[in-house]
Design goal:
The chain is α/β, with parallel strands linked by helices. Helices cover about 35% and strands about 15% of the residues. The protein has a single domain, classed as P-loop containing nucleotide triphosphate hydrolases (Rossmann fold). Bound molecules: adenosine-5'-triphosphate and magnesium ion. Magnesium ion binds next to helix 1.
């Protein structure tokens, strides 16, 4: 699959993803890493049906991404909360678009996912009353509450402080373990990629430079990052990126 965008200076088509050939299985947890501008967000946009490849084919849950919309939860890099809805209202909004969920179920589900990101107490707040990290957690709850077959998340934990990030990681792993949906998430944090993912895909200038199976069994110990194997893998990834 290839994606081209017009070059801003010449207008000529310029490849941003080049012959990317990738299969992600149900239940797989994939981290997408690579330098700024290498094509990570573009790849998520392709999966979500927002960007169409100029050559090749993409299937999500067995069909074209456009037709798989209700099976896809996509959390953008910049949170896109609706300013005229409260915290709770924003989480409910995601489910409204899917239209399968009753009012009571919607509220219960929204509150339970807000609890998981430690935002249960803040259900009535408006986006302008929340910090960046709080808004990001609401966006996480909104995406998880859809309970989609495929979860796409673009730098989902980037705005969280180290402590909150650790506990949100654990909550997310619990959400994932209970449903085993396919996850593709983008991160610039290699430790996070290795701690969470089954598989790490390193993009370099629009091509897959590395496709690594993370060799650590689950549940992973909290001190995993202090082991030699972990540090060797991390070093190998750093050498590739920089
Ligand atoms: N709609 C668009 N039109 C033209 N060029 C685009 C468009 N979207 C992305 N690009 C270009 O495609 C390349 C890849 O962008 P992309 O957003 O996928 O990078 P990224 O890996 O997500 O980077 P970052 O880590 O900074 O978020 C960049 O050169 C960018 O300028
Ligand atoms: Mg990006």
């Amino acid at each position: 699959m290839t994606v081209e965008f017009p070059d801003p200076n010449t207008g000529e088509p310029r490849p941003v993803l080049k012959d990317v050939d990738l299969k992600i299985d149900q239940g797989e947890f994939v981290a997408l890493i690579g330098r700024s501008g290498c094509g990570k967000t573009t790849l998520l946009n392709v999966f979500a049906g927002l960007v169409r490849p100029s050559a090749g084919e993409v299937l999500v849950a067995g069909t074209a991404p456009d037709e798989a919309r209700s099976e896809i939860g996509y959390m953008f890099a910049r949170d896109a909360l609706l300013p005229w809805r409260t915290c709770l209202g924003n989480v409910e909004y995601g489910m409204e678009l899917h239209r399968k969920v009753s009012r009571e179920e919607k509220k219960a589900r929204a509150l339970s996912y807000l609890e998981r990101v430690h935002m249960g107490h803040a259900a009535k707040l408006w986006p302008w009353q929340m910090s960046q990290g709080m808004r990001q957690r609401v966006a996480l709850a909104r995406t998880w509450a859809l309970e989609p077959q495929v979860l796409l998340m673009d730098e989902p934990f980037a705005a969280l402080d180290a402590q909150t990030r650790k506990s949100v990681h654990q909550e997310f792993l619990a959400v994932w373990e209970s449903s085993k949906k396919a996850v593709v998430f983008v991160t610039h944090d290699l430790t996070e990629a290795i701690e969470l993912a089954d598989r790490i895909i390193l993009l370099n200038d629009g091509t897959i430079a590395e496709d690594i199976t993370v060799p650590f069994a689950r549940p992973r110990p909290l001190e995993l990052s202090t082991t030699r194997e972990f540090q060797e893998l991390r070093r190998r990834l750093i050498e590739q990126i920089f």
